[in-house]
Amino acid sequence: MPPATHPLARQLIGYGVVNVSFTHLLSEPGPGGVSHGHLRRGTVVRIIERRQIITQGNSVSWVLAEGNYQPPVVPPRGWLQEATVEIFDRESRANTASRIMGP
């Protein structure tokens, strides 16, 4: 797993594809986040930041994701557990994986 990144390290880490039936896009990483909406399997997102959050002694990786979601999610940026997305270095690879995964 790549290390956590500082938000100013670069503008984009990569592209992610949601790999579970659905997941909530949260206002903040960790159990205290409020849901902005949900994303379905195959949704492509831009990954902007990665953080490690320690909850009850366990470290969990989270990613800050943004995208143009259908149906719209407001705001279009929020946190996902990294385990719920596959991360790619190129948008074309993420789009290919999304098509293969299907809805």
Give structural notes.
- With 103 residues, the chain is mainly beta.
- It has one domain: Roll (SH3 type barrels).
- 11% of the residues lie in helices and 45% in strands.
- It is built from one helix and seven strands.
- The strands form two sheets. A five-stranded antiparallel beta sheet has the order 6-5-4-1-7. A two-stranded antiparallel ribbon has the order 2-3.
- The longest helix is centred in the last third of the chain and has 11 residues, at 91-101.
- The N and C termini lie far apart (26 Å).
- The mean pLDDT is 87.
Distance between the termini: 26 Å
Spatial sequence of strands, sheet with the most strands: 6-5-4-1-7
Total number of beta strands: 7
**What's the main sheet like?**
5 strands, antiparallel
Helix proportion: 10-25%
Mean pLDDT over all positions: 87
Q: What percentage of amino acids are in beta strands?
A: 35-45%
Oligomer: single chain
Write down the overall geometry.
globular
Q: CATH superfamily name? A: SH3 Domains
* CATH top-level class: Mainly Beta
Question: Using only CA atoms, what is the Rg?
Answer: 13 Å
Overall structural class, as computed from helix and strand content, comes to mainly beta
What are the segments in which pLDDT stays under 50 over at least 5 consecutive residues?
A: none
The CATH architecture is Roll
